[in-house]
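Purpose: get a first structural picture of the assembly so the mutagenesis plan has something to point at.
Setup: two entries, given in the order below. No constraints added.
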Amino acid sequence: MNATQTKTQSLLAPVLGMAVIGLTMLFAVGHAQSATLHDAAHDMRHATGFPCH
Amino acid sequence: MFQKMMTGALIAGIGAGLLAAVLHFAFIQNYILLGEQYETGELVHFAAPEAAVATHDHAEAADHGTAEPAASDHGAADHGAHEHGDGETSTIERNALTVGFTVLLYVAYGIMLTVGFAIAAQFGKRITATEGALWGLAGFAAFQLAPGMGLAPELPGSAAADLAARQVWWWSTVVATGLGIALIAYGRSLIATLAGAALIAAPHVVGAPLLDGYYGYAPTEVGAIFSSRVLGVGLAVWVVLGWLAGRQWDRSGAAA
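Result (structure tokens, whole complex):
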């Protein structure tokens, strides 16, 4: 195993972890339709171009 | 590694999110409130004669700051079936939530950008603050401009197609545009460039889910200025987000 492979593997977990966290946040903040979340995020969703309701 | 990346994304996201909140209240919030006054029938655009008749009595009650959106007896009942709970939520609480969620949103975007940096670094690209600002432009194009070309930023009081269908189109457009931009920016062949252009165009060829007519209650002028301000603020904040995230990435040693 050469150095590049080691580096790639050591990056895979943090990058995947970050991607999952980022996408989950984006979904929760921008798209989830629970009434509480929707009302709380309402003005932000309108102001950042999400399909709101 | 995770900690370095996450710290950079958090710093960039919080900084950009706070800027977004300031710009939101300077340029956008008033139009949201105005749109809601049309949505609830508190204000009536002259070009909506049926609604005008049905909501006439509301004109006198309109001055109450906390007027309840009484959905039962005005013309916009089905249109405005979505309630905002304004009656129960104070302005301070509402605006604090907006600040909080705006920061959360840009933290999420900051994380996505940083993931992009890490992938680009695998291909030998060095990300600096300047490079980051360009990534910010690309992020704006992918997450706001491209979806906005099909689904214009919605002023409260405008009507739109089925929510789930719009969300699917939104995500598809974001992914296609992001991949397309990456192919054009970092692809090394004409074919990659052409494929990138095709990906960017595809969602617009398919077309966003639309209604069969126009049912908005707010004046077009309000909707137009609202949309252009949303996009203008989005552009400014995304460039700052990218610049900050790129700077953090370059300095944190996460790139090394």
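Chain A touches chain B at residues 8, 10-11, 13-15, 17-19, 21-23, 25-26, 29-31, 33, 39-44, 46-53 (CB under 8 Å).
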